[in-house]
Design goal:
By secondary structure, the chain is of the alpha/beta class. The chain is about 40% helix and about 10% strand. Helix 6 packs across helix 9, helix 7 runs antiparallel to helix 8 (about 210-220) and helix 8 packs across helix 9 (about 220-235). The chain is globular. It starts with 5 loop residues before the first strand and ends in a 7-residue tail after the last helix. The relative contact order is 0.20.
């Protein structure tokens, strides 16, 4: 009997659809195929059209805001006093307004990548778009999903996953960012190295289309979207770091960044159990 195909969509989300990367991962039996979907532009409508009732979506974007920040802004909107700092000695008492539970957990892993603050950095614009997309995807899923990865919605952080897999050294060369033509050539060469190592590590179970390879070399957003899709597969397999018991409830609201707990090589043997 042929096993049903799992459909995973990885999205490196940006405020601008032109800088949003999208990759589909089709998992069947012991194999997975990654491809670039046929989208003219990664608009909200286009990203909604990719999602079916059973599609798993992995997004490189904060899926929520810190509980303390949400409460503080709500109080401020209703002319109530701003809450007193939890710990005045910790970042002037603003750290719990700036950082989510998952942001602090990732920073504590010492992998060399620290999440941006969704409430005080420019990443907030991306989170607003992610919030709207959650509502649109809910129409396909027939419910709003929890933000902790326990359902069909998963928060990812590609740089952290790549560091866990040992593909980015602690002081590795950057593979993305703004720069002149010479710097962009360096970034492309680093993307080529990263993609080559990623494919070698997953040899035997992951296939990528030629178009995806070329697009990933051209754009860090496509490469990151591929990592988003792969991390989402790890979540489906139960091979990512989950929130501790005391963080389970808050993670459902704030979001939870999933970090792999096994190597790319180990996944091949686990696919048959899906």
């Amino acid at each position: 009997m042929r096993k049903r195909e799992r459909h995973i969509v990885g999205i490196d989300l940006a405020g601008d659809p032109r800088r949003t990367g999208v990759v589909e991962l089709l998992v069947s039996g012991e194999n997975a195929v990654a491809r670039v979907p046929d989208l003219e532009l990664a608009t909200d409508d286009a990203l909604t059209s990719l999602v079916g009732a059973e599609t798993v979506v992995g997004v490189d974007a904060p899926l929520g805001w810190p509980d303390d920040f949400v409460e503080a802004v709500g109080r401020h909107a209703h002319f109530q006093p701003w809450p007193e700092p939890r710990d005045p000695g910790e970042g002037n008492g603003r750290e719990h307004l700036r950082l989510r539970c998952t942001d602090r957990a990732v920073a504590d892993m010492k992998l060399g990548s620290i999440p941006l603050s969704v409430s005080s950095d420019l990443i907030g614009v991306v989170a607003m778009r992610a919030a709207r997309l959650q509502s649109l995807w809910a129409l396909r899923w027939e419910r709003l999903e929890a933000r902790d990865g326990s359902g069909r919605l998963i928060e990812t952080y590609p740089a952290v996953a790549l560091r866990y897999w040992g593909l980015i050294p602690p002081r590795g060369v950057r593979y993305k960012g703004a720069g002149n033509a010479s710097q962009q050539l360096v970034f492309r060469a680093e993307r080529e190295r990263l993609l080559g190592e990623l494919l070698r590590e997953s040899s035997g179970w992951l296939e990528v289309t030629d178009e995806l390879v070329e697009r990933a070399l051209q754009s860090d957003h496509v490469l990151d979207a591929l990592v988003c899709a792969l991390v989402s597969l790890f979540v489906v397999l139960g091979k990512t770091k989950r929130p501790r018991d005391e963080f389970v409830d808050v993670a459902r609201r704030e979001g939870w960044i999933h970090v792999p707990t096994v190597s790319l090589k180990e996944v091949g043997a686990l696919l048959e159990g899906l």
